[in-house]
Amino acid sequence: MISRTANGAMTSCPNCPLRDNEHFRDFDKEQLAFVMAFKSGELRLDAGATILVEGSHSAHLYTILEGSAFRYKMLEDGRRQILNFVMPGDLIGLQSVLMAEMQHSIEALTPLRLCVFERDRVDEVFRDHPRLAYDVTWIAAREERILDEHLLSVGRRSAFERAAYLIAFLHRRATRSGFIRRKPHLLPVTQQHLADTLGLSVVHTNKTLRKLITRKLIAWRNHGCEVLDADALSDIAGWPDDEDEMPRPFI
Amino acid sequence: MISRTANGAMTSCPNCPLRDNEHFRDFDKEQLAFVMAFKSGELRLDAGATILVEGSHSAHLYTILEGSAFRYKMLEDGRRQILNFVMPGDLIGLQSVLMAEMQHSIEALTPLRLCVFERDRVDEVFRDHPRLAYDVTWIAAREERILDEHLLSVGRRSAFERAAYLIAFLHRRATRSGFIRRKPHLLPVTQQHLADTLGLSVVHTNKTLRKLITRKLIAWRNHGCEVLDADALSDIAGWPDDEDEMPRPFI
DNA sequence: CGCAACTTTGACCAGATTCAAAGTAAGTGG
DNA sequence: CCACTTACTTTGAATCTGGTCAAAGTTGCG
Fold it and tell me: Which partner from A88, A132, A248, B51 sits 20 to 30 angstroms from A143, CA to CA?
């Protein structure tokens, strides 16, 4: 399950690709040493693979190194709600480490490369590395903030505003996290993914996206959405700019 | 602003009412001593008062001792989404302590009694009290989990299921936190509050609640909802029981 | 070439919103 | 104690947003 060499060598923390990204904060030497020791392996998964599943009790915590995934919940009859997307630098599995079990599943959207940490060693982080513990809490608070905004969106924005918000949101996160590097800016999602995030049917999602396409704010490509005017999308949604964002921590 | 005696004496931590509640975990002596020193005062607010406001940068962190409040966000044109309700034992203001500023507001639903902590001393928690730092993270993860479920509800449940879920949710939290003590179980909310949580209009919320009333699952009283059959409500929503819940931490 | 997955379109329907107005209860000041 | 106000709940009617169903069009892939 944990491949160290199969599809390429394991990345050592000092060479971590996240380290080159100005949006992430630097570690000091001691933290770096600890995280290197804390990291117990690397995991590669194909697109479509399930990383964590609702009801399970994972022994691991992961940081995304490369690729993207999404968190979702399902009702018994199959209705699915995508809760959030996961991109490089994001931490997953914290819920299953802190609480009894996962209450959502996570599926890879693209091929994925993950850092693996042992659940049993999380105590060490809190005991010996207050700054890293603080960062873990910060990361949890950030997820909360994102969910707040999604809830506002699904609860109170019209389908059109909601779609604009979602694409602007994904675009901002994808560019800042380094998930998307070069133009054109392509988000690798199907309309079904967007529908399940927006709380809409696929049919209506399609019709709503068509309006954004007509206005030349996005274009639809083979299995993906090209973002043409992210600022206009944020404007439609009334979503603030958040320019003063500080470099964010990751583990 | 911080009253120590005005409307009754300040509660000392060893006599904290939360301590009597089996659903909350106990502190050991050292933790208790620290929290006592960490607590810098007590705040009493009237129903309807705004505790924290979007865009502000609070110098405090609060734990609810008594009463209830709600977190919400608004769009520019006044549309409001209630994100979650806050009850005894809940921590508020963490976002503004960790990040630059609040991105939601909090308003008292009932008269409120809060423990006040200084933002500047949060570092001490992480530096010297790993167990408490862990608890703070746990509390953040719990909020995330609640938001996940709300998002599923607003995005994918029908109005009827959604209303049933929300009332079952509020009821479970209210009874476990000690916010509601004796029968009849009355939730002090208006239909406008429920509507803004459900992402529905007041009119449609009223019609939806009426169905629950007809089925004798709830009754509507003066400014409040009486819960008659919480289990039936959870069933309608397909919301799991969560019986094996462990005592939870608070600060 | 042909299947499988995804996107698009149209017709019709249901659930939810809006608007308007009336009913109810609690609270206030005379 | 009553009249008046305010806040909240209820109802009906008209309208609209978004859902469902069905079918066809695309694209990628083996």
Answer: B51
CA distance A59 to chain B (A): 17
Residue-wise pLDDT for A148-195, tens only, equals 999 999 999 999 999 999 999 999 999 999 999 988 999 999 999 999
Distance CA B143, CA B139 (A): 6
Task: Give the predicted TM-score (pTM) of the model.
Answer: 0.95
Cα–Cα dist A99/A35, whole Å? 23
Burial class (CB in 10 A: 0-12, 13-18, 19+), A192: middle
Residue range B94-123, pLDDT digits in tens: 998 999 899 999 999 999 999 999 999 999
Contact A134 B134 (CB under 8 A): no
The tokens describing B78, both together, are 């006044």
Residue in the structure block whose two tokens are 């902590």: B117
Write down which residues 178-217 in B have CB closer than 7 A to strand C: 199-201, 203-205, 207-208
Strand (E) or helix (H) holding B136: helix B130-156
Token pair of B118 as six digits? 């200084």
Q: What are phi and psi of A85, to 5 degrees?
A: -105, 150
Within 8 A of A147 by CB-CB distance, chain B residues are 144, 147-148, 151
